[in-house]
Amino acid sequence: MASGSIKDYPLPPEQSLIMYDDDQRRDRRLPLAPLERRGYGYLLDFVVIWLFSSLAAGWVQLLIFIAGWFALRVILVSANQGQSLGGWAFDTRVVHLKMKRLPGILELSQREGILGAASYLAMVGLNINFANGVSFLLLVAPLFGDLIWAIAEDGLGQAFHDRVAGTVVLSSRRGFSLDLRLKKFWFDLKKQWDNRQRRR
After folding, report:
1. Bridge-partner residues for 95, per DSSP?
2. Among 36, 108, 120, 158, which is most exposed with the fewest C-beta within 10 angstroms?
């Protein structure tokens, strides 16, 4: 990334970003999305596309997967302020770090081409399941490596596909907050259960 400062990305009013110089990497003030939220969002998108593509087999399945991945992770994101279905459900958004804007079709295609290929291989591996352990491990390895890259990255939490496309995943106030709603639902359910137990 080029040196210099980055200020005030042109995002919606609720989201303003400030970054400092490269030599202050650990002091950057960005509302980075927690890794677990990014994982939940990715998993939701992956499962939706997997379900649709599992209706077919062979080359047709591959074509459905590619079309679904491109529609959900590129077209929708470019038209929906940097959010896919999973990003909206878990309040995360993708932004282009260097260009100071939401990523365009080219950047998203680079990003999702890498992640989509790794995801497709993982889907094939999961379809095989553990019938062939070696093949399973080899097929899920690229996706696992991408995750390890994000965990090991100490500054912006960029996975390999983010680094190549120059993107970063941030928290957003725009979304459904699905994880928070589920936690609240579980807490309320547990509270009702405890109250019933006390009445007995």
Report:
1. 168
2. 36
